[in-house]
Amino acid sequence: MKSVRFILAAVVLLAAVSCINKAYKKVVVDKQSTEAFYDFGPIEEHGARCDNEVRGINYAPGVPGSDALVLDVYWNEHEGLQPALVQIHGGAWLVGDKQGINSMFRSKYLADRGYVVFNVNYRMLPDFPLQDQVNDVMGAVIWVKEHAEEYGADPSKVGVLGGSAGGHLTAMVAWASDDPFFSPTGHAGSEYDSDVQAAVPYYGVFDLEEMLTLKRDRLENVSMRFFTGMEEGPERDELVRHISPKYHVDSGLPPTLFICGDKDDFGLYPQSVRFEKMLEEQGVTTDLFTAKGAVHGFDNRYGEEASTEAVEAARKWFDRHLK
Questions:
Q1: Residue 17 has what pLDDT?
Q2: Residue 254: closest CA among 153, 151, 172, 141
Q3: Hey, is 307 helix, strand or coil?
Q4: Interval 284-293: pLDDT, tens
Q5: Quick check: 258 and 201 in contact, CB under 8 A?
């Protein structure tokens, strides 16, 4: 009887997610921004400023759900071409928006330090399963390469960063772009690929099975079905081997800097530690920045020391590998 009640509750949750997703930006994003503003003032006072921005560019028109496939561009006046960065927001693959305060902080901070930053949205669960989100961000990277020079960016020097679910998607772009399983949304036939030259996942999920399975039979199955859009069986097992970053670790990965707080609420810090060691063993250039005492999403509070130290670590990493 308990299992029946749980499954019914899960069905209700699935039906509610779309409504939650629509309300998220207004309620959560605005609340985070307002609270941080009152505590720290404008992000510009903390080094996150830029001369130019263009918002709401559709990077894959004509596909189902394309109204979500938009990006914003941030850059300062400059001569020549600057490296490009693709910034991917978090939100458990369910909610979130490129206008989230930590996404804006990272984007403008890095734009002020010699980068053209493309801050992207992607389609959400439950309407679009996680593999579509991977396709979306890969498609966004290709769009960036196709249009980079219009904004003074170099299509041959592209980095990617993002937090939480965006950290997972960052790793997928950086580590799995050569996997033929994926078809970049709206750009599968492009002359460009979605490869990047450097990656910085913030508090990311690199082992999906560890994150999504709670070792309680029915709960585990419902969770995996929700995130993959598939029933239990060999086909879903195969799918997970494509969409979980851990199956893409090899010696050919681009330089990857892991950023995570050692008090992460979702227990993700050990994954960052473990995967930094795994990449090192493969001979990949890698490092780990530990935000001491910081929780999940710590850079929502952009005025705190940990947030500035983390984005400075990201900046130095990209300087090292893209400039």
A1: 45
A2: 172
A3: helix
A4: 999 999 999 9
A5: yes
- For residue 120 the two structure tokens come to 């992207």
35-47 pLDDT, tens digit each: 777 788 999 999 9
SS3 annotation, 124-183: CCCCCCHHHHHHHHHHHHHHHHHHHHHHCEEEEEEEEEEECHHHHHHHHHHHHCCCCCCC
Length of the chain: 323
CATH no. of 2-322 = 3.40.50.1820
Tens digits of per-residue pLDDT, 119-168?
999 999 989 999 999 999 999 999 999 999 999 999 999 999 999 999 99
Q: Which residues have C-beta within 8 Å of that of residue 44, sequence separation ≥ 6?
A: 108
pTM, to two decimals: 0.90
Q: Left, alpha or beta for 108 (phi > 0: left; psi -120 to 50: alpha)?
A: alpha
Q: Within 13 A of 129's CA, how many CA atoms are on the CB side?
A: 15
**CB-CB neighbours of 154 under 10 Å:** 17
